[in-house]
Amino acid sequence: MPEAALRRLQAVPWDALEGLVEAVLPAVGRVLDGAAAEREIDRLLRAHRALRTEQRAAVVEAVFGVGLWRRRLRAHAASTEPRALLFALLRDLSLVPEERAAGLTGLAAPLPRSSPPRRIAEKWSLPDWIEAVFLRELGAGADALAAAMCAPGPVCLRANALRIGRRELARLLEREGVLTRPGRYAHDALVVTSARPNVLALRAYREGLFEAQDEGSQLVAQLVQPRPGETVLDFCAGAGGKTLALAAAMGGSGRLLAWDPDADRLRRLSERARRAGAPVDIGRDVQADVVLADVPCSELGTLRRGPDLRFRLREEDAARFPALQRDVVEAALRRVRPGGRLGSRPISPPSWSATASCAPGRTCTTWTASSPLPGVDSRRP
Of 117, 147, 176, which closes a domain? Predict the structure, then answer.
């Protein structure tokens, strides 16, 4: 087990699960059948609003834990039953004494122990096809990546440079009881070091002083490097995380447009932009100096953000991305003015990458993990 994931499981107040297992198991069963874990947890907590903090934590970790570790738990429990899998989560991964684990999960007696699995897919609870992708793309590094995908990612914030600097935001957050440290690469990134607070309930968030955004996502906007007075188009804007980061980088100079085929996402983007004080136009009919096309991809790089996501992704869905990515990139190219720039991230995994020809007079850039970051010393610890 990776140290971070093991430490997280061992820190859960599992005793608070006493008397709640019969309420939890139906939600676990629906997650195992393909329902989204976050949706099931929301339903469960709404139905049991009187739960204490420790009980809520135990319930959430039970559903997420079985959802994430289901394949490894099946190897430990030699069963696919939700109750048996929850028992294995407590005994074999969380190190709860087996008699206590049996009592908490409603088993008459502990299940027999089995040897820890050695195969990557079973040890790190992955579908066969994702294991095959990791081995094909990374070889000996597949095990380390699979382990990292089982540890929760850090909570990362981006200071809204339109309203506040990173240092000042850190001081404000500390006064609200949230401790942070500077991000490693992104100029405006803060990593939360307090015990996973509800950052969206903070006054600083309501005032538009920061956004919750992974540092890697912040770097995409940073690498675009918009110049004063330029017209910039975020062509695959989603709900607007990178759009708002671009707006902050532009400092109110030039024109920023955002587009996404999902109208609901664009509505949320507009709401976030108003809160952040970011001038963003919704549209795509423009000849831009810079177009960012963060094309749809397999989502394999986000597995640790959704504990059950790995079991809801399908290989056949991933196979459709090359054609879609090519279409998006070529549509984006048509919106780059002569002499302008198109930027996109590398597609994951590389063997599924789409290709598109860069039009004459336009500069096309794909940023990779080894690309130098503007203004950043990659050797910095």
Answer: 117
